[in-house]
Design goal:
The protein has about 325 residues and is an alpha/beta fold. Strand 2 and strand 3 form a beta hairpin. The strands form 2 sheets. Strands 6-5-4-7-8 form a 5-stranded mixed sheet, with helices on both faces. The protein has a 3-stranded antiparallel sheet with strand order 1-2-3, with no helix packed on it. It has a domain of about 120 residues: 2-Layer Sandwich (Nucleotidyltransferase, domain 5). The protein contains 12 helices and 8 strands.
Length: about 325
C-alpha cells in the first residue's frame, strides 16, 4: 500500500463515532494485543456503555479503562472532536486555540487546554532524541516589544531568548532541530542546553559569543567563527537561521498574539512537527500504522501520560 495521508473529510468520516475512536485507542495502547494485568488472559469484551475492556475469563472479569492515564481522559470533549483536533494540529501551519474553538464549537479554555496537553506529549516524546554529528548553534529573540534602539550584546528589552541547534546532514540539509527557551544567553544556560540535547563528540559551529566559551572542554569539537552580522550571518549559518525564520513566521502567522508564558510548549510543537516532516514517507514501509503525522500524534496521545497540573490548574 503506497504512502498516503488521509484527507480531512476522510479522516473525519473514519473517526466519526465514539466506537471507532475507542477502537483506534485500543490498537495503539496495546499494539501487541491486550493482556489482563490480573490473570494474564488475552480475550476481552469491550463494554458498549462504558470506556472499558472486560477480561473474558469467567473467574476474573476485571475491567481496564481504555482512556485512563491518557490525554483523552483529560480532554473535556467528545472523542471524535479530540481526534479532529489532532488532525488539525499536525497540519503544516498547526492551529491556534482560537481557530480550534471555532472548528470544534467549544469554549476557548477547552481548546487551549487540549492543545497544551498535546504539546506536553510532544515535548516529552522529543526528550529521547539528541543531536549529533555537525551541529549549528545560535540564539534568537522572539515576542515582547522593543524601542528600536541599538543595544550591545544580547540585551533585547522584553523579548525572550531561545537557543537553536540544528544537525547539518549536508551543506544545506537539516537533520533534527531543537529550539529551547532560555532565561538568558549566558554560558550557564547555553552550556546546559548543549549538554542536554547534543551528544558528546559532536562538532559545534557557533559564533564567538562569550556564552559558548569553554564548551569545547566538555567533550565537544567547538569551532567558533566571527559572525559577519546581518544577512551575511544567515549565509554563514543557513540552517539555524532557516529554523529561526520558520519558527517566528509560524508563531506570527498561526498564533499572532501568542503568550510568552507558553513559549516552551509552542517551541516543542514546532520541533516535533519539523523533526518528522520527512520521516513519515521513509518509515511507511516499516510501520504503516505510524505513516502520517496524525497517526504519530494519536499514538503518543494514547501512550504518553499527561503532564501533572499545578494548583492553579495549568500544565506544569
Amino acid at each position: 500500500m503506497p504512502y498516503q495521508s488521509l484527507t480531512l473529510p476522510d479522516f473525519a468520516a473514519k473517526f466519526a463515532t465514539v466506537d471507532s475512536c475507542l477502537e483506534a485507542i485500543v490498537q495503539r495502547r496495546w499494539p501487541d494485543g491486550w493482556k489482563c494485568r490480573h490473570c494474564g488472559g488475552v480475550r476481552y469484551h469491550r463494554l458498549r456503555t462504558r470506556r472499558v475492556l472486560q477480561c473474558a475469563t469467567r473467574s476474573c472479569r476485571r475491567q481496564t479503562s481504555i482512556t485512563a492515564g491518557t490525554i483523552f481522559a483529560q480532554a473535556k470533549l467528545a472523542l471524535p472532536k479530540v481526534f479532529l483536533a489532532i488532525y488539525l494540529m499536525t497540519d503544516k501551519q498547526g492551529v491556534s486555540a482560537m481557530a480550534l474553538r471555532k472548528h470544534l464549537g467549544c469554549h476557548y479554555d477547552t481548546a487551549h487546554r487540549l492543545l497544551m496537553l498535546l504539546r506536553g506529549a510532544m515535548a516529552d516524546r522529543d526528550q529521547a532524541y539528541a543531536l549529533q554529528g555537525v551541529v549549528q548553534v545560535d540564539e534568537a529573540y522572539v515576542g515582547g516589544h522593543g524601542d528600536g534602539r541599538h543595544r550591545r550584546g544580547r540585551a533585547r528589552d522584553t523579548k525572550r531568548v531561545i537557543a537553536v541547534a540544528v544537525e547539518q546532514s549536508a551543506s544545506d540539509v537539516s537533520g533534527f532541530v531543537h529550539l529551547e527557551a532560555l532565561p538568558a544567553a549566558d554560558s550557564e544556560s547555553l552550556h546546559g542546553m548543549v549538554l542536554e540535547k547534543i551528544k558528546p563528540g559532536a562538532r559545534l559551529l557557533t559564533d564567538e559569543w562569550q556564552g559558548y566559551n569553554g564548551i569545547g572542554d566538555k567533550g565537544y569539537d567547538h569551532q567558533p567563527t566571527i559572525s559577519p552580522g546581518g544577512h551575511a550571518a544567515s549565509l554563514q549559518w543557513p540552517l539555524v537561521h532557516r529554523a529561526i525564520s520558520n519558527c517566528t513566521r509560524w508563531l506570527l502567522g498561526t498564533h499572532r498574539n501568542f503568550c510568552l508564558r507558553y513559549l516552551p510548549e509552542y517551541l516543542a510543537e514546532f520541533c516535533w512537527r519539523t523533526n518528522r516532516r520527512n520521516r513519515s514517507k521513509q518509515d511507511h514501509d516499516r510501520n504503516t500504522r505510524e505513516a502520517t503525522l496524525p497517526d504519530r500524534l494519536l499514538t503518543i496521545a494514547c501512550r504518553q501520560r499527561p503532564r501533572p497540573r499545578t494548583a492553579a490548574g495549568k500544565a506544569a
